[in-house]
Each structure stands twice: as C-alpha cells, then as structure tokens.
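Worked problem 6 (solution included).
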Amino acid sequence: MNSSFPFAPMPDEHGFFGPYGGQIIPPPLKQAMDDITAAYLEISKRADFQKQFAELRADYVGRPSPIFHAERLSEQLGGAHIHLKREDLNHTGAHKINHCIGEALLARFMGKKKVIAETGAGQHGVALATACALLGLPCEIHMGQVDIEKQHPNVTRMHILGCKLVAVTRGQATLKEAVDSAFEEYLKNPTDYFYAIGSVVGPHPFPMMVRDFQSVVGREAREQFLARHGRLPDYLAACVGGGSNSIGLFTAFLEDAEVKIVGVEPAGEGLDRPGRHAATLTQGRPGALHGMKCYVLENPDGTAAAVHSVASGLDYPGIGPQHSYLKDIDRVQYETATDQEALDAFMTLSRIEGIIPALESAHAVAWAMRMAPTLPSSQNILVNLSGRGDKDVDYVAQRLGI
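Solution. The predicted structure is:
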C-alpha cells in the first residue's frame, strides 16, 4: 500500500474529512446523531449483525457483482479498454441496496419504529422500501414532484413494496427539497424514527456510515481486477451526485497512487448556464448544506442554487464531504459530462453491449468513452455502472423520440 496520501483516520472523531463534514445541526438533532453514531460503531462490529448483513448481501442482494469487459465498445472506440463493475445487476437494480440493507438492519437492531428517507431518481427509495419490507419496518419516502413525474416506474415499485410516498412540491420539487422534507419529518420524533440518508451526505455519521456500507464495491473490484489481470486498473470512473457509488468504488484504491481516480459530475445543459447544471465540485465553493460542510453551488446571497441534470439522482447542489476533501488534496480528479453526452452514452452502451445503464451511470460511461481513445490500448478504465436504466427508458424514449 502506498502511504503518500493522508487518508486515515477518515473521518475524525467529530466527523470531519479535513475541513469538511461535521454536524451543523440544532441541539435536539445532535443528540439523535450522536446516538446513531454510538449505535453504529457498536452494533456494526457485533458478530450477529455482521453475519446477517453478509448473508443478505450474498443471498438477497446477489453479491459479488461481476466485472464485465465492454469489448465491443472498447474496439469501436479504440485506445484503452473499458470495464464495467456491474452494480446494475444487484437486486433492485443499483448500488443503493448496499447501504439500504445496512441502514435498515441497523434501524431494526436499534429498535426504531419507522424508517424515513429522501430519493431523487427513486433508486434509493426502491432499495430502502425493499429492505424495510424484508425486515418488517414501516418506511416513508419523500420525493420531489418533478422526479415523481420523471421516474414513474420506480414510483410504482415503491407503492407495490408498501412504503408511504410523500410528494414534495416546494421549490424546484427535486432532490434538495426532498431532503429538506424528510429531515423535517424525522425531527418530529428522532427517538423512534431512523433517517436513512441515501448518499454520503448529511451530518456525521452518515457520510462515514454510507461510505462503509458501500465500500464493498471497491473491495470486490480490486480483488476481481487483480485476479483477472494481475494488475490494478489505470483509471477508475464513477458518476458523482451526492457521491455514494463513487466513494464505494474509490475507497479501496485511494492509497494506490498509480491508479488515477475520476468522478464525473453532471454538466447538464452547460457549465456556462447557472441553474442548468449540477457540477458542485467543478463550479461550487466551500459552504454548508444539510448539516455538513462541503462544496456547494450557491446563489450570491448564500442560499443553495438551483441545479439541473437529465439524471434525477445527480441534481443536488451539495456533495459528500469526503469528495470535497479528495478534491482539495488532488487525489480525485472531478470531470463533467453534459446531458447530451449522457444520453449518447446511454444509447451507445445499450446498442453495442446490450446493457441499458441508468442515466446517472451514463455520465461515467460518457467520460470513459471520451477518454479511452486518447489512451494506449495497454491501459484499462474501470467504470462503476452504478445502476440500470429501466427507470429511465420512458423518459429517454420521450426525450429522443424513440
């Protein structure tokens, strides 16, 4: 292991990754967060928790997920070979089930009476509703009205799974507003409710806890790639909204200095169009949002700016605090892909490899498609294909006139 990068311990005891993270929350909520932190640190180490969690990941989620060499795509593009970590093959169709099983299991071990969460694209909502159905916990999901209209298949799945779906109509009626609404409901009874945040965002311990539950992606990928190729990939790539799928892949490789790591943010309709992209690390600045210090896209008055992405799971004006730190120390390079590039990648991967990616994941595929022809054929790019595109097919067909 290369120790030239300052990664451990991460976060510190107060939940900070460098200057980012922490708990910017009212006093009543701080006690609830501290209780969750203490419970997580104790319960997650227990043999009975670890045994049940491991069994569910294997027999229910379907782990390990495979790595697929996108050979036809690589041949068509020329240059580096593109490989896909197939998180889209997990039960419920995305990486979100990894931490949802962990959070719901923790809530049950803590004796909580209801699990509350937000969702953007609906993948976190579906995964949490699935986990709660499995473990016998009531579930309430808050979702922006705009996203409800874009993500009808996932809305239907959540209803079928028995969760209570709360439509959020305030503001832009997308992911930020869904987070606000879910937090407000949680604050009504933090003693009995468990807030299952859907990414590596929010107050400590959530950026740490969701990262830990997602880190199985990178551990598997590292072992699988070494076993097959006898070496590590030259590049990692993953889409970045809040940042859970990317941190899940990146964590196992952070100390491998020879591996270049790239997070791909949504450039939307263009970085020169304020309010029409969600490239937080590219265009934002350090600030605070949803109980944490992180990079934020802000208006001149300091409020969170309007954001946009063709992918509902990426239109968030903040970012996980660990990503903010990794940007500052130059360990991860953050690039962007536009709506059109993501749509092109969505269609290209579907028609060349027979894999329909989530629009979120298509941002990372778009970057790999752009980068591969510039690299020698001896190099390898490993993309985290974080979800499948079943949820997006109606929207894409309407958008492209298919």
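Discussion: The radius of gyration is 19 Å.
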